[in-house]
Design brief:
By secondary structure, the protein is mainly beta. It is built from no helices and 11 strands. Strands 2, 4, 5, 6, 9, 10 and 11 form a 7-stranded mixed β-sheet that branches. It has a 4-stranded antiparallel β-sheet with strand order 1-3-8-7, with no helix packed on it.
Length: 120
């Protein structure tokens, strides 16, 4: 299993930037991919960005060109650089790990969430 600890959320004005970090510990060699999801009040949790162990990235259309996901394999840490933030980016951001439990099965692990608030 793995543990995920997020940091870096906060309050920022529209147009500003924030960087989120997610440090993984435990059986990190079994992580297939990591990502960031977000959940705004009254809405479902949605994908923001993911990165595989091979470095391939995927972004939601709403964040493309503004957010960048990256990783430091040596530190087992994933980052989300968020630029040109908009009020609609306000949400709790959750770190996710897709963890290989068996050769044919996976499960999700989640961090505790970090609040990002963008004021207009």
């Amino acid at each position: 299993q793995v543990q995920l600890v997020e940091s870096g959320g906060g309050l920022v004005q529209a147009g500003g930037s924030l960087r989120l970090s997610c440090a993984a510990s435990g059986s990190t060699s079994r992580i297939n991919s990591m990502g960031w999801y977000r959940q705004a009040p009254g809405k479902q949790r949605e994908l923001a960005a993911t990165i595989t162990s091979g470095g391939s990235t995927n972004y939601a259309d709403s964040v493309k060109g503004r957010f960048t996901i990256s990783r430091d394999a040596a530190k087992n840490t994933v980052y989300l650089q968020m630029n040109s933030l908009k009020p609609e980016d306000t949400a709790v951001y959750y770190c996710n790990a897709d963890y290989r439990t068996t050769p044919w099965g996976t499960r999700d692990y989640w961090g505790q969430g970090t609040q990002v608030t963008v004021s207009s």
